[in-house]
Amino acid sequence: MGKDMPPPEDSDLRSTSGSIFVRPKAFGDGIYDILLARMMSLEIGPGDRLSVEKLAREFGVSPTPIREALGRLEAVGLVVRTHLVGYRAAPRLTTKQFEDLFHLRVLIEPDLARGAAINADEVLVASLQETLIGMEEAAIDGPAFDQFARHDSRFHSLIAASSGNELICDVLTRLNIHIHIFRAISDSAVAKHSVAEHRKIIAAIADHEPEAAAQAMRQHVESSRENLKNSFKAAET
Ligand SMILES: [Zn+2]
Q1: How remote is the CA of residue 198 from the centroid of ligand 1, in Å?
Q2: For all residues of the chain together, what is the average pLDDT?
């Protein structure tokens, strides 16, 4: 009694083996994030070629982490890989694809908002409020649409995640990223509109009012579709 306990003999071993099995992902994630940010801000435009060799030189790394980051972007539909050509940023959506995506969003997202209002806890509501603050700041700061889009994306992902349906979360994660690139071409009027609509959705979720939340989400997705459709068509001509 009172004696200091010697450290368990295997403690070092355990921490060592722990560190061995941690995937060294920080570096690759950094490249992924930078490429994603460039795509969100349209610094990398639709259809632009992404040379593994050039990127490896720029980042001062071997081709492996570059290929890994590009592979992850390919998995979420932001990069396409073709035989001979290699990697390219995904091309712009066609008007038909744009309409199809919003058709799906209108069908799915009101139901997710309904579920979020039923399941909502303080953590969810606080996280949703955070995205609102981020969107307001991005909207005030002028054309920071990539930032605005990130907060918007997170808002919709949080609501999807609260549904507990992993398949729907996965589908929406893929779709939102596409859609948010297009937000980069929209104007600040769209941004202000979205903030007010998000506030309404959060209020309904926080008050545990499923039907009001579903209705507010439906209005938000439908008005986003209308607003973005105009910017989309303007950019197409
Ligand atoms: Zn939104």
Answers
A1: 6
A2: 79
Rounded CA gap, 224 and 168, in Å? Answer: 20
Assign 22 a pLDDT band (cuts: 50, 70, 90).
very low
Q: Ligand 1 centroid vs 1 CA: distance in angstroms?
A: 61
What is the pTM assigned to this prediction? Answer: 0.72
Counting other chains too, the contacts that 131-135 makes at CB distance below 8 Å and 24 or more residues apart are 131/155, 131/158, 131/198, 132/195, 132/198, 132/199, 132/202, 135/191, 135/194, 135/195, 135/198
For residue 112 the two structure tokens come to 């997710």
The Å distance, Cα 169 to ligand 1 centre, comes to 15
pLDDT tier at 230, thresholds 50, 70, 90: confident
Between CA 31 and CA 22 the distance in angstroms is 18
Cα(72) to centroid(ligand 1), Å:
24
**Ligand 1 centroid, distance to 98 Cα (angstroms):** 16
Q: What is the dihedral of CA 98, 148, 112, 72, to 10 degrees?
A: 70
The DSSP secondary-structure symbol of 93 reads: P
Distance 217 CA to ligand 1 centre (A): 8
Domains of the chain: 11-89 (1.10.10.10), 95-236 (1.20.120.530)
Ligand 1 centre and the CA of 18: distance in Å? Answer: 40
- Which residues have C-beta under 5 Å from ligand 1, the single-atom ion? 152
pLDDT at position 137 over 50:
yes
Q: Which pLDDT belongs to residue 24?
A: 42
Ligand 1 centroid – CA 196 distance (Å): 10
